[in-house]
Amino acid sequence: MRTERERMMAGKLYKGDSELRKMNKRNRRILHMYNSTTVDESAKRVELLKELLGKTGENVYFESPFRCDYGDHIYLGENFYANFDCIMLDVAPITIGDNVLFGPRVGVYTAGHPIDAEVRISGLEFGTPITIGDNVWVGGDTVINPGVTIGNNVVIGSGSVVTKDIPDNVVAAGNPCRVLREVTDEDKAYWTKLKEEYEQEMID
Questions:
Q1: Helical residues (DSSP H) of the chain, grouped into ranges
Q2: How far apart are the first and last CA of the chain?
Q3: Domain architecture of the chain: domains with CATH
Q4: pLDDT at 167
Q5: 113 is a catalytic site residue
Q6: Alpha-helix runs per DSSP H in 109-165
Q7: Residue 121's pLDDT band (boundaries 50, 70, 90)?
Q8: Which residues does the UniProt record annotate as the domain Maltose/galactoside acetyltransferase (predicted)?
């Protein structure tokens, strides 16, 4: 027979039990320490994140406060940054690639509850994984819903509610979030030119 945690990780209905409550208490202790650190304690912050999360790259940073359910089920690539008030509900895996930026108040929610009221009131719930690719920028106040996959090289506009998968190489926004256009060679040329002008000005 599967444990409640095994059921949770398999995306099946589950109830919180002593194992999950113990994991949650551990999470709260570490988060309290992390959110109580100062900007001068960068080494301690990295140490706490590596203790809290399932996987991190070497360069990972959350502005405090940061909240999550367990932490163990969050897997981050290199060069991850989240601005203030990030919330990740990781009752299912949250997998994020390299070079991902979150604006303030981004929510990543794998948790779900039954639509039927009687079943919901019984305490049963479930989770569905979320995956975010490489080189993604998620604008502030965005909500990413259970089961969503966001591709590589994507920009999500602020205030979006992402309810369906987003393909590679697009700008998407809205409620519900939808693709607005592709990221083009013209985008690359425009931003590369500005970068080169910046670098030249810094030399001059």
A1: 4-9, 18-35, 42-52, 117-121, 185-203
A2: 69
A3: 4-203 (2.160.10.10)
A4: 98
A5: yes
A6: 117-121
A7: very high
A8: 5-58
Q: What is the mean pLDDT of residues 124-139?
A: 98
Name every residue whose Cβ is closer than 8 Å to that of residue 129 and which is 6 or more positions away in sequence.
Answer: 11, 92, 93, 94, 95, 110, 147
The string of pLDDT tens digits covering residues 53-72 is 999 998 999 999 999 999 99
Q: Over the stretch 141-189, which tens digit does the pLDDT of each residue have?
A: 999 999 999 999 999 999 999 999 999 999 999 999 999 999 999 999 9
Residue 65 DSSP label? P
